[in-house]
Design goal:
Chain lengths: 390, 202
């Protein structure tokens, strides 16, 4: 009898061991929401004037030799501070609400507490977490920029986001190794790493590697994630990771790996999406159509989806155009302008005569008269109102 | 009969061990194959890059530039090339959208080899952003007189590739010579090229 029990136990152990699950195979399609992007439903600009609060900020970032920004890769507005990643200088600059330079994370070097490059970053409380793509490490610096923690993450990371205690790191088919994952999660508290969406190296040489502008977009405690050659948007929360939306284009969409030659050929096809943003009510999908940046705005409640040029405009502020923007977790549109562009091409960006709010007009004029063309960028920050439909 | 379950258990364990050992060996074999494939793939990519670089260098060498082409210097303004260069010019050409680490390592190498102090080097930069020029000047402590912003007129006569590269502008013939596209991963070759330039043009 005892021997029979042992045999039974062994068989149960064998059965249990053979049932290893694969996280990516658990998904079911039934909960997927369809985003249908009808290219014929096209308008020029999306006007944000009805979506934003009347008051908004115009901030000229301070410029001096210690805080000259070369090129902004990412901007976060956290703790009432602007954290700006300068990817050429590999530094994170911190400015306060009125644009005064506060400090910067600039610890480039080959020492144990230093980094070589910053691919992306997030801010958790007052700590700055960066991913150094040259040494493949996730590093945490405290508010005095002393290194607190270091984690080896072998997967090259392009973008980062944070949901509660989980740092999310994304790649995009960038790996020569055996197997890799599009998404990695590192939990700050229990120091656990979790991987999602496994993939193997594309077995074809000379494939162009695509780097997306924005792979994560967060609202509250939920984040959407996308990557190339998969028309699914994944929703990530602290407890869950599910495919949430599937987007399809009415025509000419073909997102597949391309060789250098194919990539350089002029094509009418839409080759994947470039960036993803979301607000409480909408998902904004950015893509390029015949060389022109476009956006599809999908309403989460009604399921409607319309297509626009990727430029927002504010009709209450002289049809002020918003070319480059980040949408923060707190529902703010943070737009950026080089003083050189605003000064030299003012008439193409806004119509001074049509600015209704005279105090804002004066503020803009004062700001522009106090900057030089080689100064740091000017930020215009709009807050989405409760009535916003965007 | 009494020992039948025990015999079955032993046989079962034996079969499982055998299967596992076979699986392990297969994994090892796959891994080995993959490593070989990976090495081959990387070698292929290296070869592709080198061929591409050499082809581009050949395309540019011997090409002439019009002496009347305008170029901008943040210290002295926009003037024809011939006004700025009365000797052969050694040039590093790059844009603000190119590989940052490549540009960074090249400017640092030039500095280490005293090119900014002792040799006739100029940085030609394709950018629409004046702040980027200021950033290069301050970040690398480069004399403003050595920084030039190219005009579309000059840019269309040069190669539009995604990497920074060196060349020598022969002032007599206004022809481009000694073009070299450095590979970040092979800094020794870049140093060898720069030493050659020092010897030939001093």
């Amino acid at each position: 009898m005892t021997i029979n029990k042992i045999v039974l136990l062994l068989l149960i152990v064998c059965v249990v061991l053979s049932c290893k699950s694969d996280k990516t195979s658990q998904f079911e399609d039934k909960d997927l929401m369809e985003i249908y992007i009808d290219l014929s439903k096209h308008s020029d600009f999306y006007d944000i004037s009805k979506d934003i609060e009347q008051d908004f900020d115009i901030i000229a970032l301070e410029t001096n030799d210690d805080c000259l920004i070369s090129h902004i890769r990412k901007i976060l507005y956290v703790n009432d501070l602007y954290y700006i990643l300068d990817d050429k200088g590999a530094s994170v600059f911190i400015f306060n609400n009125d644009g005064t330079f506060m400090s910067k994370l600039d610890r480039k070097g080959l020492g144990p507490d230093e980094y070589i490059n910053i691919a992306s970053f997030i801010v958790k409380d007052k700590d700055i977490w960066i991913y150094d793509d040259m040494t493949k490490r996730l590093l945490c610096y405290d508010s005095a920029f002393d290194k607190k923690e270091e984690i080896k993450i072998d997967i090259p990371t392009f973008d980062m986001a944070i949901i509660k205690d989980d740092i999310l790191l994304s790649t995009n088919w960038f790996w020569y190794g055996e197997n890799s994952y599009q998404l990695k999660k590192y939990n700050i508290r229990n120091k656990e790493k979790t991987e999602y969406l496994s993939y193997s190296r594309i077995e074809q040489d000379d494939i162009v590697q695509i780097m997306k502008e924005n792979q994560f977009t967060t609202v509250g405690d939920s984040c959407l994630f996308m990557y190339s050659y998969d028309n699914t948007l994944y929703q990530i929360t602290a407890d869950d990771f599910i495919p949430r939306y599937r987007y399809t284009f009415s025509e000419r969409f073909d997102d597949k790996p391309l060789t250098n030659q194919e990539f350089e050929e002029v094509s009418d096809l839409i080759r994947g999406i470039d960036a993803l943003y979301q607000t409480v009510h909408s998902i904004i999908i950015k893509y390029t159509d015949k060389g022109e940046p476009k956006i599809a705005i999908y309403n989460k409640e009604t399921g409607d989806c319309s297509v626009y040029l990727s430029i927002f405009t504010n009709s209450d502020f002289g049809n002020f155009k918003i070319y480059r923007y980040f949408i923060s977790n707190d529902q703010e549109i943070i737009s950026l302008y080089d003083p050189e562009t605003l000064i030299n091409y003012a008439s193409e960006i806004y119509d001074n005569q049509k600015i209704k709010d005279l105090s804002k007009k004066e503020h803009l004029e004062n700001t522009l008269s106090n900057v030089n063309i080689a100064d740091n960028p000017i930020i215009i920050k709009y807050k989405l109102s409760n009535k916003s439909k965007l | 009969m009494k020992y039948l379950p025990l015999v079955i258990t032993i046989i079962l364990l034996g079969v499982l061990s055998f299967l596992y050992s076979q699986y392990y060996e297969l994994r090892l074999l796959c891994k080995q194959c993959h490593m070989e494939n990976k090495t081959l793939a990387l070698e292929k990519i290296d070869l592709y890059i080198y061929t591409d670089f050499r082809e581009n260098e050949l395309k540019l060498n011997g090409k002439s530039i019009s002496p009347a082409s305008l170029i901008n210097n943040s210290k002295h303004g926009t003037l024809p090339l011939k006004e700025y260069f009365d000797n052969d010019g050694f040039i590093l050409y790059f844009t603000d959208f190119q590989c940052d680490l490549c540009v960074d390592s090249l400017i640092k190498t030039l500095d280490e080899m005293n090119f900014f102090r002792d040799h006739n080097i100029s940085l030609w930069i394709k950018t629409s952003n004046t702040r980027y020029l200021s950033w290069v000047e301050k970040n690398y402590n480069v004399n403003r007189g050595l920084l030039f912003r190219t005009t579309p007129e000059i840019e269309e006569q040069l190669l539009d590739i995604e990497l920074p590269y060196f060349f020598v502008l022969d002032i007599e013939s206004m022809r481009i010579n000694s073009t070299f596209i450095p590979l970040k991963e092979n800094s020794n070759l870049t140093r060898e090229y720069l030493n050659n330039i020092k010897e030939k043009y001093e």
